[in-house]
Design goal:
Elements: H1 3-7, E1 24-27, E2 30-33, E3 41-46, H2 53-71, E4 74-80, H3 84-98, E5 106-108, H4 113-117, E6 132-137, E7 143-149, H5 157-173, E8 187-189, H6 195-201, E9 207-210, E10 213-216
Parallel strand pairs: 3-4, 4-5
Antiparallel strand pairs: 1-2, 3-6, 6-7, 8-10, 9-10
């Protein structure tokens, strides 16, 4: 790979099903470490900048789903490369102008340490701001999902809730979820790995399309 191409790559990028990079950072709720969230799910997300329109709508939307996330055992942690003073002023402004309180902490990542660990700066999109990233980290501090959005696109909170529901359902029942799955829909039973298993699958009580594609209902 040419040197100029290498230089344009983000300095770090977590991998799915591998440990999330550890960090210690100053936030609007004091110093926080990744280890503080051990035993619970965590959504770590970045936004480009304080006092910007799309980010403001997103923070209001995150605040609205925060109770639903907590019911699922999920915490929220925001990040941008603004200062903690900027964060505090922005949150106060949001509350003053919209009446919405932001209940979760925001990392002040002025030196881009956490952003670099998580590959949140994409030079092709912005050399000076973090893009809209979402990292879903499980109670064992393992990265389970990553979603990146361009600067112009605000995030869909219902999709974030759907991802959490799908991951937790898959862990609980050892299944997979089909396209457009929602809680209450049928789930996918893992495909058999032997010829004998494929034959047995066809006799099961599942909803069978073929030996490799079978669905069933699960509770919770």
């Amino acid at each position: 790979m040419p040197e100029e191409t290498l230089a344009q790559q983000p300095s770090g990028l977590p991998r799915l099903n591998e440990p999330a990079p550890a960090f210690e950072a100053v936030t609007t709720h004091g110093t926080i470490r990744l280890s503080d969230y051990g035993g619970s799910w965590l959504i770590l997300f970045s936004h480009p900048a304080d006092f910007t329109p799309v980010c403001t709508t997103e923070f209001i939307a995150f605040a609205e789903i925060y109770p639903d996330l907590q019911k699922r055992g999920v915490e929220l942690l925001g990040l941008s490369i603004d200062s903690v003073y900027s964060h505090i002023a922005w949150l106060r402004n949001i509350e003053e102008k919209t009446g919405v309180q932001i209940p979760f902490p925001i990392i002040a990542d002025l030196n881009k340490e956490v952003a670099s660990l998580y590959g949140m700066v994409m030079p092709g999109e912005s050399k000076s701001e973090t893009v809209r990233c979402v990292f879903i980290i499980d109670p064992k501090s393992v990265v389970r999902a990553m979603v990146y959005y361009p600067m112009s696109l605000g995030r869909n909170m219902q999709e974030i809730l759907r991802i959490i529901d799908a991951l937790q359902t898959a862990d609980k029942h050892q299944i997979a979820t089909p396209a457009n799955w929602r809680p209450g829909d049928k789930v996918i039973v893992p495909a058999p790995k032997t010829t004998e298993g494929a034959q047995e699958r066809m006799k099961s009580g599942y909803e069978i399309t073929d030996w490799y594609l079978a669905k069933k209902k699960v509770e919770g």
